[in-house]
Write a structure and sequence with these properties.
Layout: H1 3-8, H2 17-22, E1 31-41, H3 48-54, E2 65-78, E3 84-94, E4 97-100, E5 103-108, E6 113-118, E7 124-132, E8 138-149, E9 152-155, E10 163-171, E11 176-185, E12 189-200
Organism: Sporosarcina saromensis
Protein name: DUF4166 domain-containing protein
Domain DUF4166: 15-198
Length: 202
């Protein structure tokens, strides 16, 4: 069973059918998508060194713009302890430059949340809450976060966290998936956001 179907339970069937298909990710059914992000924004200029440093971990990047080509691959794998995992590779194509926003997700069945390790190697950890909206869209929100330093994980106070909200839906008229992501800090405001559309491809 997909970790997303597990965490959503009966609510999984309330997702738009195309989102149910999209999030039914098993070892033999990866998801490949491509599209365009109409806008990538966020982050004040003094944060540029932080975003530049994030390139090293395939987590953050300083480039911003409009109509940026985008590809996404979600693939299932198993961790060393046999834990089911979903790898997220999100690639933003700024001309010949590729920037990544990667993560590795797994299920915490006891707490009913998705565990999200961000970056490669992982630099940040976040609990994720998944909910289905009345119109069949999916909302993902980050909860408690930790800084990952090798095998050490340090809880981050809320004022230092980047709180993410993701909304994903399916547009039947245009036959595309729509995505909107915002990462905000309680003190600074918008750190990073993007929105756009994509389709599945082989």
């Amino acid at each position: 069973m997909s970790i997303y179907k597990h965490v959503l339970g009966d609510d999984f069937t309330k997702l738009h059918p195309m989102l149910q298909k999209r999030y039914h990710i098993e070892p033999d059914t990866p998801f490949h998508g491509k599209g365009t992000m109409t806008a990538i924004t966020g982050g004040q200029k003094w944060l540029y060194p932080l975003f530049k440093l994030g390139v090293r971990w395939k987590l953050l990047f300083p480039e911003r713009g409009e109509n940026i080509d985008f590809t996404i691959t979600n693939s299932a794998r198993f961790g060393a302890n046999g834990e089911a995992q979903i790898h997220w590779e999100r690639v933003f194509h700024f001309g010949f430059i590729r920037r990544y926003f990667n993560a590795l997700m797994s299920l915490d069945a006891k707490r009913g949340i998705i565990k999200d390790y961000l970056g490669e190697p992982a630099l940040l950890y976040a609990d994720l809450a998944f909910t289905v909206t009345d119109d069949g869209a999916l909302t993902i929100e980050s909860l408690q976060q930790r800084l990952v330093l090798g095998k050490i994980e340090i809880p981050l106070p809320r004022l230092l966290q980047g709180l993410a909200t993701v909304t994903e839906s399916y547009d039947e008229e245009q036959e595309v998936y729509r995505i909107a992501v915002t990462v905000r800090n309680p003190l600074i405001g918008n750190l990073f956001s993007y929105e756009g559309e994509f389709v599945q491809h082989a």
